[in-house]
Request: fold
Amino acid sequence: MTLTRTGAALAALGLAIAPMGALAADITFLSVGGPPSVAKAHTFGAILRALESPHTARVSTVDGDGLLQALSVDAPQVTFDVAPEMLADADLEALGVIDLGPNQMGALPERRTVITRAVADEAPEVAEFLNLFFVSSTRLDEMGSLVADGTIEQAALDAWVQDNEPWIRNMLALCPQFSAGACEVGGDSPRPFKARDWYGTSEADR
Reply:
């Protein structure tokens, strides 16, 4: 991945360095279409590209009704678009996926981040960062405004990441062990408790 100015700034803070010797994972972000879904998939991929990481990111669009079934147990895949009712009767163990919890705040409809086990195995620091990734309605509207014809142009993505460096840095600061692929976890949720406590604050809701 290319280290952009944002990546260089974050790396200087000791927040953006992948584990030494980490293997490169080709991570697919599954979108169900529509500006919110497309925006989250593309912008998280852009954040990874901005960081000094060995991993690559791509976006693929799938039918929302078959979203969980589209997650391949043998490949590192992520989706930000699982509605809670989709998980009600799902056997996540059999599907080979991990539910990381909600990624939208406030009055937005609940959508959960779900990853395949391959992400946790091949890119553990990315899995931990995904635990910290959540958006407010303001930010999601801003991200969604970048979407045109079902995608976001690379130049627009790079500019967005640069403009949102403080937000990215704040998320990463909640996980000082990011470079080791581990974040502090507490309570009854796989989401790091510091991130959960951050929900609803002015810094998070920027």
